[in-house]
């Protein structure tokens, strides 16, 4: 998790820890294209992104494996190196930004009303991750190209 010091108009500094969920739904808009996908992150940090919309890629799954991705669709699987994944890849862009926000010390945080804006730059571009004051994901904007709204968030179970 990431810890940010946030200052607000006349308020004292606050520590914010964005919470990366085990499972959530992402509604993604890329220009006039829209995608819906379930994002799942396991204990080892492997992301699984399973698309449900649009119909043309329904059930396509993208998994991260360190420096590569595995794409599964219609019974076929292909492994792609991280550097060769298209920059516009929705799955790669969203998961890279979430991992970067959770692990980078170079992000900048600021309070915006009741929300926290976390700004950073991942390999896919500059992003703004919005959370509530407790760190729960709300939305993500990447290079003013992709916008993501998070819902159905399931956090890791406390041990």
Brief sketch in words of this structure:
This protein is mainly β. It is built from 1 helix and 13 strands.
How would you characterize the overall build of this protein?
An 11-stranded antiparallel sheet has the order 8-7-6-5-4-3-13-12-11-10-9. The protein starts with a strand and ends in a 5-residue tail after the last strand. The longest helix has 14 residues, at 90-103. Helices cover 9% and strands 55% of the residues. By secondary structure, it is mainly beta. The chain has a single domain, classed as outer membrane lipoprotein receptor (LolB), chain A, CATH 2.50.20. It is globular.
Number of helices: 1
**Envelope shape:** globular
Q: What does the average pLDDT come to?
A: 86
Strand content: over 45%
pLDDT < 50 runs, ≥5 residues: 1-15
- The N- to C-terminal Cα distance equals 16 Å
Q: State the helicity in percent bands.
A: under 10%
The CATH architecture can be given as Clam
